[in-house]
Amino acid sequence: MLASHNLIDNIDYKTILFEKRPCLDSKGNICEGIYNAWIILNNPSQFNSYTTDMVKEVILAMRQASNDRSVVAVVFTAVGDKAFCTGGNTKEYAEYYAGNPQEYKQYMRLFNDMVSSILMNDKPVICRVNGMRIGGGQEIGMACDFSIASDLARFGQAGPKHGSAPDGGSTDFLPLFVGIENAMFSCTVCEPWSAHEALRYGLLTKVVPVLKVDGNYVPNPLVYTDKWVNEFGDLIYGKAKTGEDLSKGKEIMKSGAVDLSLLDKVIDQYCTSLMMTMPNCLSKTINSLRKHKLEHWDKNKESNRDWLALNMMTEGKAGFRAFNDGPKDNRECDFIKVRQLLAQGHEWNNELIAAISPVKK
User: Within 13 Å, how many C-alpha atoms sit on residue 130's CB side?
Assistant: First the structure.
């Protein structure tokens, strides 16, 4: 009888889905006895943001897939077509962790373990980006070995806009993908990239159209996908459309429907390509390449955890509560007011937080 190396057997997952889907050969035939493990975040009503319980289950699922002798590759994705993941659950952050650094530090231990569970998986991990990949969602996505994305997806950070820093992996990983200048801009200004921009910068393996109009797939109509330069010589491929172009793009969006079946077909093709290799040689190659991420991740993750916990007493407390409690059209602190108060020497306390909150008094 074969030994089990799982921490827990027969897990009853509550917040994610764990599926074993048969491997397919190059002709699409089922390969008996071998599978791809699909780990699926299941919180679409909150854009698949991860709760504490979800983080725990992702760790266990990654471990289960890694140990399963019949699993060839892991596909990490989420329910729906709006979001892969928008990061930590801001409702939980605001209502439980804000102002509780000792609790958030323990949570960040779990988060770090989730990222490490991806980086240490014995199987190649493909991020199937079915929608937005923002904040911590970007970080767990970059921990994966490949990213194959819907061309409607957007990619970016949210940390400094909401009282945090992207120290759950982005400050470690993003420069390796896109270079220091693009990483600096993304992590600080927090303007999202379209999937086409992210592909051009080197963040993604492949982008796949998912919008069908009159039965045919069309590229994302909200971004420029057929123009490389404007009249000033600026590269605009992948940039968001504006004005009349944007209005026309929105009309095309309304006339179509999102269909992820082509994305899934491409995912299957990549899984098949990975299957057609020697398993231990594949694993060694992946682990050798992961060292570039791990070199930075292992060096910084614990000190980052300490800082992120303490930050929950000041900017994190203010930022996450603003996002959770503020009106839909204003979920950010008053950045000018906070700088003015700090310039006057105001201490970080509940009075300051109330003064910069978007919640109407």
Answer: 23
Domains of the chain, CATH where assigned: 16-210+260-311 (3.90.226.10), 326-356 (no CATH)
- Do the beta carbons of residue 253 and residue 222 sit within 8 Å? yes
Chain centroid to Cα 202, Å, comes to: 16
Please state, in angstroms and rounded to a whole number, the distance separating the CA atoms of residues 283 and 219.
34
How crowded is residue 209: how many other Cβ atoms within 10 Å of its Cβ?
18
Give the Cα separation of 353 and 357 in Å (integer). Answer: 6
CA distance 89 to 74: 24
Q: Could you state, in chain order, the average pLDDT of each consecutive group of 10 residues for the chain (361 residues)?
A: 90 97 96 98 97 98 98 98 96 95 97 98 98 97 98 96 95 97 96 96 97 96 84 82 95 97 98 98 98 97 97 96 92 96 96 92 57
Give Cα 198 to chain centroid, integer Å.
13
CA distance 193 to 201: 10
